[in-house]
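Task: fold both queries, return tokens.
Query 1:
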Amino acid sequence: MMKKMLATLASGSILALLTAASANAQNVDWSKALGHYPNLTLSVMSETDPYIDAIKATKDGFTPLTGAKVAVDGYGYDALHNKELLGCSQNDKSYDVMLIDGIWLGEFVEASCVDSINDRIKKDEQIVAWDDFTSQGAGQATWEGVRYCLPVAIYYELLFYRTDLFAQAHKEAPKTFAELTDTAKFFTNNPDFPGVYGYAMNNARGAAAGQQFFEWIFNAGGIPWKSNYIGSKDPYADQTPMFNSPEGVALVQLFKDMLRYEPPGAEGYAWDERANAFAAGKLAMINDWSVRAQIANDPKTSKIAGKFASALMASRDGKPVPPIGGWVMCINSHSDHKDAAWDFMKWFASKEVHKQYALAGGTPSRLSTITDADVQAKAPWTKTIFEAQKTAWTEVRPRHPLTFQLIDTLGVEVNKAIIGELTPKAAMDEANAKITEMLKSGGLLK
């Protein structure tokens, strides 16, 4: 049975008060703060989301300070999860630092794959500046009250929309589900906007559709499981699934209905297809993680660079609960170079270097970086991120040891509803039954 999780931080009520203090320069003397590691190459394992390029662009600053080189290898989402867990089971020490999805943390902790960094943070409090991370980012790096990782690549899901098309149509960014549907319908098959579809969603069977449900359910007025409501002191106290609630069924019906305003083949869209279609100019608007805005903003790869803006995502009643996600950086529990790994992590996550990383295209996780004028000038959507973190909820997705399997199972049933293989009600009844049995078998539900 999973231990009771300590209360997670609230959704950002004190963050504005911390911002001014967080922005102060650290003035770290790195010659004293870091060790010396000649002839060492630290190995970092990461997902291939766009933030990896920013890590690669920033990492080499560590070498002249310590003598250690840093090598970064990237893998796809499922492949990274499986490779990291397999390596852990085999006591693999070939990687020193692992980036993991924040929702995998419970699984990785239970499997003894990552080390607690509580004591290390206490020794380096000035550098780490933990309270400068958004509260949800800090929550993604924490499990059962223990800090295991640093939240270096935290995402918020936002609405992105084409400013050129919206200006021509005299439209504003939608705030409610009804407005979202009407706006998507307006732009689809409209002779004034040839080749443009209104929207695209993460519909692909498995993890993509499963995660989408969690990202939207609070905005649909529902909850994913019984004790997981906004402000819950113990979100994991009762994990009775609520996927087939009226709100859950209505949400999946919305996913199905929106398909009529999406490009052909969108029932198979996942993260890359959704982002690439927007960058190619095929969509009037899209919901996407903040890290992927770089894809649309790069004039080398995008037809809409400089022609889009961001807003908080739509919700049923116009009161959004922005989804939180992203990647946390952890020490491989089997590494032979843990001190060097920590030195790299605290250096990379420091305010000074985190700003460099954000300017290189990384997604900012620190309040001081999110509110930095240089960062906002280069990535204007960071202004929306600042608004998003005020009402986001850390536990929007499960983070316990069965998370990966649970989300995949849910996503299979959600996709069946989207493509018409099952009705939304039948699909969510099936998902509820399968996940209930899964949780009972795993000892997470009585």
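Query 1 returned. Query 2:
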Amino acid sequence: MIVIKFLPYGKQDIGEDDIQKVVNVLKSDFITQGPKIGEFEENLAKYCGSKYAVAFNSGTSALHGAYFAMGLGKNDEIITSPNTFVATSNAALYLNAKPVFVDVESKTGNLDVSKVSEKITEKTKLIVPVHYSGNPVDLKELSEIAEDKGVKIIEDAAHAIGAKYNGEKIGNSRYSEMTIFSFHPVKHITTGEGGAVLTNEQEYYERLLMFRSHGITKNNYINQPDGDWYYEMHYLGHNYRITDLQAVLGLSQLNKLDRFVKRRREIARTYNEAFENNPYFDTISEKKRCQSSYHLFPILLKDKLKDKKREIFTKLRKEGLGVQVHYIPVYLQPFYKNLGFQKGLCPVSEDFYQKEISIPMYPAMTDNDLKYAIEKIYKSMKTFDQD
């Protein structure tokens, strides 16, 4: 079969202006630990409406830093979704805490807020909602539960920069202590690899800064400094620093974010119109108060087709669509099974996994690309239609 084109499920959009700004930093005095990092953080915080932002070298290290800043430790528990990348819960394990998985909504793949209260115990320290595919969780309802139970919220918004809840940008941490972002190339903006934590609390901000740089500070000393060279290590931190090369790319990309999100929403609108009332699969719709930034565009196979997902997936790939699946429920991974987690824990999430396929969604898609994707999806689905 001759494939005219190949459309991945997502990819970066790097322009010549982005490249030139990185080259300029390469020619400067600082390619790491320089001024572009602070500039990126300041602009990111301003964009999202938060007081502070701390950039990290990945979304995973950002999660680790946020959990650390929150004081998560041994015997603590976090409540989170199994419909996420493993990093969301892995970062709790790094600190010897335990993830507790709550099932998801069948129509959105987001944490089912109505099931959270029953899983809160005296060990629960954090609730970590994942804004799956860029579609926000109902934060107001969740924050009311958290406040009533005396626990805190950290938003895993790796999918959701540029999304809005109640008309405000995700990342303002109005309903949470902190929000984390990822800047992997398939996300809305990229720094190559990278992430960030946003918060309105100075205490968390200062702990985050130290944690990403070996636990070292050059302020707020415990001992009398020996001289201008002096520094102190207060925590067992990590080298999670981002470089100026990455930061300047992030700065350049941030200037395009609204345009990127607008195009993603245009693509989603076209998909939704083209797929309305089709007999093969459903799509995810936005809930009241939520405006998705569409990191992903998941389709959910109808029950009659979900047992044919593997064949459908393969067919779509052969037709030139670089589809992907998001996600295998975290607790089904062998490592988590060895921790005692068992199949059947979150049946809705497992069913969601059986149905979900992520189709191409990225700003550089042309209208012709979009038309191609829609035609190939319908062609592939009809192959397996037995009715």
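Both queries returned. Flag for query 2: Residues 257-275 form the longest helix (19 residues).
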